[in-house]
Amino acid sequence: QEKQTSLDAFFN
Amino acid sequence: MFKAVLSDSNILKTSFDAISSIVDEVQMQADEEGLRLDALDRSHITFVHLELKKGVFDEYQCDEPMKINVDTEELMKVLKRAKAEDMVELTVDEGNLILSFEGEARRKFKIRLIDIEYEAPSPPQLEYPTEFEVPFSLLKDSIQDIGIVSDKISLHVNEEKFEASAEGEFGDAKIEYLHGEKIEESARSIFSLEKVKEMLKADKFSESAVLRLGNDMPLNLALKMASDEGELSFLLAPRIES
């Protein structure tokens, strides 16, 4: 089962 | 003084069809180069970037940089009233964005400008292992196909093919497309079908889409106008196995 990530983790 | 005239009303209509389904409000930034917008949805899942350079417009004038903050739903309601053959003119006064549609008659709408406290976010710079082009209509068809079996979509690219697929409780679906591009690595990420659908509402912006995919990385989807003067692009956060 996957969960939705947010872009915050990729912003830095 | 800000004035922009556009003979192709579809550009704004199709862009804001997607933008308004992603974010409730936006800050457009106008300067002498053109109009741009960067916005992030409330849950920080989708980032959208629109750039319409001066050359996109039939007439463009902006003496000093300005911010035009609007409610996207209100703007979309007005843009929907533009006919394909109408000339669209954008101007601003003290507290409004003014849209005039010039066709058989001249129809004028004012949309109240709103306060936006935050600064428009800047897009993250990400390095991708793959970049390839696919027809926009193929993406649009793929989400319809996948929607039959699932609410998630797995996007996969390798040296030869681009694949959209999903495994559902009651069945599976897979779309394969030979991309014909030089790709040396393979990449796969999974996304919410609903979120991809929102981005693909912009179906009149460009005939093809440039995709960048990585492994468990955001999807970067860029639509570019043939003239290279306009771009609508999106970043969508992936679903990751927990």
What this model shows, in words?
The complex is a heterodimer of chains A (12) and B (242). Chain A is built from one helix and one strand, in the order E-H. Chain A has one helix spanning 8-11, and one strand at residues 2-4. Chain B is α+β, with helices and mostly antiparallel strands. Helices cover 17% and strands 46% of the residues of chain B. Chain B has helices spanning 9-22, 72-79, 136-147, 193-199; strands at 2-6, 25-31, 34-40, 46-53, 59-62, 66-71, 87-92, 96-102, 106-112, 130-135, 152-157, 161-167, 172-178, 187-192, 208-213, 219-224, 230-236, 239-241. In chain B, the strands form three sheets. Chain B has an eight-stranded antiparallel sheet with strand order 6-2-3-4-17-16-15-10. A five-stranded antiparallel sheet of chain B has the order 5-1-7-8-9, covered by helices on one side. A four-stranded antiparallel sheet of chain B has the order 13-12-11-14. The model of chain B has no long low-confidence stretch (mean pLDDT 96). Chain A binds chain B through residues 1-12, and chain B through 40, 43-47, 124, 126, 152, 190, 192, 217-218, 235, 237-242.
